[in-house]
Amino acid sequence: MQRYDKATVVIKYGGHAMGDPKLAQDFARDVVLLKQSGVNPIVVHGGGPQIARLLERLSIKSEFRDGLRVTDRETVDVVEMVLAGSVNKEIVAAINAHGGKAVGISGKDANLMRARKITRTWRDPDSRIEQIVDLGFVGNPDQVDPHIVDVIIQSDLIPVVAPIAVGADGETLNINADTFAGALAAAMKAKRLLLLTDVEGVLDKQGKLVKALTTKEALALIEDGTISGGMIPKVESCLGVVAKGVEAVVILNGKVPHAVLLELFTEHGAGTLIERSGASAT
Ligand SMILES: Nc1ncnc2c1ncn2[C@@H]1O[C@H](COP(=O)(O)OP(=O)(O)O)[C@@H](O)[C@H]1O
Ligand SMILES: CC(=O)N[C@@H](CCC(=O)OP(=O)(O)O)C(=O)O
Prior knowledge:
- By secondary structure, the protein is α/β, with parallel strands linked by helices.
- The protein has a single domain, classed as Acetylglutamate kinase-like (Carbamate kinase), CATH 3.40.1160.10.
- Helix content is 35%, strand content 26%.
- It has a seven-stranded mixed β-sheet with strand order 5-8-2-1-11-12-13, with helices on both faces. A two-stranded antiparallel sheet has the order 3-4.
- The site of ligand 2 has 15 residues, from helix 2 and strand 4.
- It comes from Methyloligella solikamskensis.
């Protein structure tokens, strides 16, 4: 079995996975337990459904392209408010209520994450025609300065990070949380990146769990449409991360009680494992 003493483990806690209050408490307890057992957990959270709820209350329409929210000026304000505000503080409070000491920050703090605005080509699933779409205030990680996260860890605290970054002109950029977690895991040279979501892992055409995925297989599943929507940035993030030296990434179901502990501390693990070729992750 793997040893995780003093190992950095980045846990991406998806907005769907945090829906159930009981599971949210379990998650917070598990993070505290990891810290107490000598692991250094870093939580990066999403909040897609939580953003959607506030946008709806404000009657602001929102749409996605290949799993990324088209984010205009009005929307980015709401995204930052929800992610760096309510969602971040809710997770911090839950961890602290279970005896941990969490500190909530966003990628803007101490210039943790500088990002570059992206435009994306998008293929219409019906016509298969490719279009270039301007996603607005959406970014891809450009430069990561993990100093602030190191400082928090060295002070024996647990960092909880909202996926907001600063752009080249000082503008606020909305970053997909999987992409953000991947960039941070690579910069921190984490031992593991765990992406907690609302499905068992990557599912094949028959809806069966794919237990392990190579880069080539992953790209083929994206190309043929088996992997779609929010699973695209998730898998793309995994591929980038293992290429940058993180041993392994696991996509797993955060709705299973104690998913993180089961993955790290049992032989059988869970979810879909994407590992660096040549690395032995089990
Ligand atoms: N091949 C696939 N395997 C599993 N899930 C997939 C696949 N293709 C698309 N998805 C969708 O991706 C979703 C997970 O992404 P997302 O909704 O962004 O989750 P999160 O909020 O946890 O980041 C799943 O609920 C599922 O609807
Ligand atoms: C660019 C982009 O799509 N950003 C995401 C950020 C939150 C996120 O990724 O949340 P989940 O992990 O819960 O999906 C969004 O606006 O929804």
